[in-house]
Design the sequence.
């Protein structure tokens, strides 16, 4: 009986669209743009507000984005500006909402603050993004290559990386 009362007292989580709208009202400086596509919500975040927003999303009741699922880089191409994206895929184990945060970076400034201060799991994701794209995560505790040898030249998932690699790693 007591368990039935507890479950009856639980309030259903707000829809993600309402959470994002409330966030935009409360902290408009944290959000450059909101994109809805194919049932997914993406928030474009200025890099200087990224960590503040991540902490808020993780610790604020009602948001509860307590799981960082992935961080990945995107090279939109040398002709595009901003050239790079860093995407943070968040999940709430409370409401089962999914949310993507996106930081846009120009080619001449590929720095973004580390999210390891919010989620420890960001460590390896950021190292992989650094290794493959050359994105620098300021404040990262151990930013070094994770998949390629330390003496590897370049970042192989950049669109301007030669298909056959640089010497001495090229395939002849």
Sequence:
């Amino acid at each position: 009986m007591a368990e039935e009362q507890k479950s009856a007292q639980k309030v259903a989580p707000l829809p993600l669209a309402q959470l994002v709208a409330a966030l935009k009202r409360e902290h408009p400086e944290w959000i450059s743009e909101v994109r809805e596509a194919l049932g997914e919500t993406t928030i474009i975040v200025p890099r200087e507000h990224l960590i503040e927003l991540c902490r808020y999303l993780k610790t604020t009741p009602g948001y509860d984005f307590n799981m960082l699922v992935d961080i990945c880089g995107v090279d939109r191409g040398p002709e595009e500006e901003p050239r790079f994206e860093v995407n943070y895929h968040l999940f709430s184990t409370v409401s089962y909402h999914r949310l993507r945060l996106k930081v846009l970076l120009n080619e001449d400034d590929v720095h973004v603050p580390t999210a390891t201060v919010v989620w420890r799991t960001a460590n390896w994701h950021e190292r992989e993004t650094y290794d493959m794209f050359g994105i620098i995560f300021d404040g990262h505790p151990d930013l070094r290559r994770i998949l390629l040898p330390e003496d590897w030249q370049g970042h192989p998932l950049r669109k301007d990386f030669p298909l056959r690699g640089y010497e001495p790693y090229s395939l002849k």
Remarks:
- The two ends are 73 Å apart (CA to CA).
- The chain has a mean pLDDT of 91.
- The chain is about 25% helix and 25% strand.
- The beta strands are 33-37, 40-44, 67-75, 84-91, 98-105, 111-113, 136-138.
